[in-house]
Design a protein that fits this description.
With 114 residues, the protein is mainly alpha-helical. Helices cover 84% and strands 0% of the residues. It has a single domain, classed as Up-down Bundle (3 helical TM bundles of succinate and fumarate reductases), CATH 1.20.1300. The protein contains four helices and no strands. The mean pLDDT is 92.
Length: 114
């Protein structure tokens, strides 16, 4: 990070996403457990609820952002070569962004009845 307090902000954002994932994960697990069976039709019907679709988008985006932050810390701690570390962080960021877009588009597609 460029400023001398950048690590503190990173630390707090990582903790905030971790705390946000607690109720989101509990909601997700209980929602899936209440489903009569795991079929495409049941999942599509479940995802057509705006509430479920919105929370699922939050699970995907917050989860992937939290994972990206954690992988960034690992790269910063264990990759000593600056250019390799920068490239690794950029690749991790792009992969997480790609997965987020795929996940969110999938949720929207299911929620609109595809």
């Amino acid at each position: 990070m460029s400023n001398k307090h950048g690590g503190t902000g990173h630390f707090w954002v990582q903790r905030l996403t971790a705390v946000a994932l607690i109720p989101l994960t509990i909601w997700f697990c209980f929602s899936l457990a209440k489903m009569p069976q795991m079929s495409h039709a049941n999942l599509s019907a479940w995802m057509q609820s705006p509430f479920n679709a919105a929370l699922m988008i939050l699970v995907i985006s917050v989860g992937l952002y939290h994972g990206k932050l954690g992988l960034q810390v690992i790269a910063e701690d264990y990759i000593s070569n600056r250019s390799t570390r920068t490239i690794t962080i950029a690749i991790v960021t792009m992969i997480c962004a790609l997965f987020a877009v795929i996940g969110i588009v999938s949720v929207l597609k299911l929620s609109f009845g595809a």
